[in-house]
Amino acid sequence: MSGLSSWNLTIFPDTTLSFPWRPSLPSRPLFSPPRKRKTLVVLAMVFGGKPTVLVAEKLGDAGIQLLKTFANVDCSYNLSPEELCTKISLCDALIVRSGTKVTREVFESSMGRLKVVGRAGVGTDNVDISAATEHGCLVVNAPTANTIAAAEHGIALLTAMARNVAQADASVKAGKWERNKYVGVSLVGKTLAVMGFGKVGSEVARRAKGLGMHVIAHDPYAPAERARAIGVELVTFKEALVTADFISMHMPLTPATSKMFNDEAFSRVKKGVRIVNVARGGVIDEEALLRALDEGIVAQAALDVFTEEPPLQENKLVLHEYVTATPHLGASTTEAQEGVALEIAEAVVGALKGDLAATAVNAPMVPAEVLLELSPYVVLTEKLGRLAVQLVTGGNGVKFVKATYASSRGPDDLDTRLLRAMITKGLIEPISSVFVNLVNADFIAKQRGLRLTEERIVLDGSPEKPLEFIQVRIANVESKFASAMCDSGEITVEGTVKDGKPYLSKVGSFGVDVSLEGSIILCRQVDQPGIIGKVGSILGEENVNVNFMSVCRIAPGKQAVMAIGVDDEPSRDALKKIGEISAVEEFVFLKL
Ligand SMILES: NC(=O)C1=CN([C@@H]2O[C@H](COP(=O)(O)OP(=O)(O)OC[C@H]3O[C@@H](n4cnc5c(N)ncnc54)[C@H](O)[C@@H]3O)[C@@H](O)[C@H]2O)C=CC1
Ligand SMILES: O=C(O)C(=O)COP(=O)(O)O
Prior knowledge:
Elements: H1 2-5, H2 38-46, E1 52-55, H3 61-68, E2 72-75, H4 81-88, E3 93-96, H5 104-110, E4 116-119, H6 129-134, E5 138-141, H7 147-162, H8 165-173, E6 191-195, H9 199-210, E7 214-218, H10 224-230, E8 233-234, H11 237-243, E9 246-249, H12 263-268, E10 273-277, H13 286-294, E11 298-303, H14 316-319, E12 323-325, H15 334-353, H16 368-390, E13 392-407, H17 417-428, H18 441-447, E14 451-458, E15 469-479, E16 491-498, E17 501-507, E18 510-515, E19 519-526, H19 531-541, E20 546-553, E21 559-566, H20 572-580, E22 584-591
Parallel strand pairs: 1-2, 1-3, 3-4, 4-5, 6-7, 6-9, 7-8, 9-10, 10-11, 11-12, 13-14
Antiparallel strand pairs: 13-15, 15-16, 16-17, 17-18, 19-21, 19-22, 20-21
Helix pairs in contact: 3-15, 4-5, 7-9, 16-17, 17-18
The structure holds 1,4-dihydronicotinamide adenine dinucleotide and 2-oxo-3-(phosphonooxy)propanoic acid.
């Protein structure tokens, strides 16, 4: 628990849900840096107290202005990978487009200070998401503002390719007049296969239908209703290959889509197919495309994106006479760039404030109203985790944990991802040097071999309150406070929320009723008069304020468990004196 108090100087606030940028508050929030960055973080406070956002690629002015209202903004473009790694240790957020590789080294170099990476666009394939998650760094993107721009560019390439616009333009500029050479093909009545029927793909489909094309789409995850509504038929990958006169790529670059268009795929296409790629270079095996172009299997290609950007000057695809190339311009319209800049600036500022981002790539997206309702339970779950783990004294380590949520709401009406993350945070932080937040909770739990299972108890009654109580149980361990073990042999703590505040309602099989503030002394004694007074006066002599006390006994004269909430930590001496009271059989001091 010493780690907690060592954070009293950080600039982060005490709430676990949000961390508006203000100084001197104790505990660590959901998106906070690990302990080793304390010095730097404190320095940041000394030098202005605002977070620093590094904007590593050109971003629309509206976005920059918005960022400046909240943060120090460092616009440094064209940084080398080494320069980026050097700068990043002084930054709380980083904003990039597709031109910056945010590698594992970047996260490692940040040494935990980097809390948010904002991708001012859709594709996050240039960000090492696993590394971000492992470092507890949130990744957000701007998924909607450039959709139309990308779709329009797809259509521009489709029509320009079909009519040889780029080649003919170059020819005229070279003083030639080659009307026969640049005879094109018509689009009307031709079949276009849209690969990836998401936001951009759907808009391309809509526009292509307006051009009189027959549109089919391949997307294993697209809802059939959306396709039906636009008048597009969803087909298999193979069907798309054998049917299409034109193929347009709109899927993300993932391990599954990488080189999806390879020699095998090209061996199935209609001879003379034409290909548009506004998605990512990596979805096509560029060597295979080159072969297919040379063999006339692919008649033409229009490429906005390349595996390596910018492509080498001698890149044979770029130089190919049947290829039209643009320098990753899909999102580059004035309108889209202003929109993307605002979208990402809002997301980054929100994330720095501790809001859960609506466009999070590596964390659950929790709507604001759900968050508001769950916030006292978020505090409760972290505290239950902290209490439970401090009760462990031996066994095989904290490996098997069960969280039970008792609620009268249906399973679909209760999102427990936040609660699970907070239990993990509470369980792990007091016993390790790692920090846990919503981004990395599952990763850290898995890494440490912690299996947190969740169970629901469905109660009758009004579902107005999201939860009646939450129980956290740790199995296969011994406890330093034997009374914390319930009949099933697990350490058990249970809590509830009353008037918006978290309460401990059960320890082991003993019911208690103590507000989860400050710290707690749990004490099992033989039920007899005067014990409360004795403990109270030991604490009083020490000037330790008791904020709450509750006693639960099995039966008069038998054992009782007393839970005492204290504002400050009593001295060792005072705790020893409590232990020496003859009726006290066991006691434990727990920090929250
Ligand atoms: N050239 C440029 O400047 C731009 C490029 N893009 C690229 O376009 C991609 C798509 O953007 P959005 O439509 O906004 O994303 P989106 O997420 O709305 O759509 C992607 C679609 O691809 C589908 N998909 C995933 N795996 C697939 C697979 N194996 N086969 C077929 N479909 C698959 C998904 O189900 C989804 O419907 C982005 O990931 C980005 O790489 C986006 C904007 C601008
Ligand atoms: O949004 C995307 O995925 C894009 O590819 C746009 O990239 P850019 O921001 O123009 O570098």
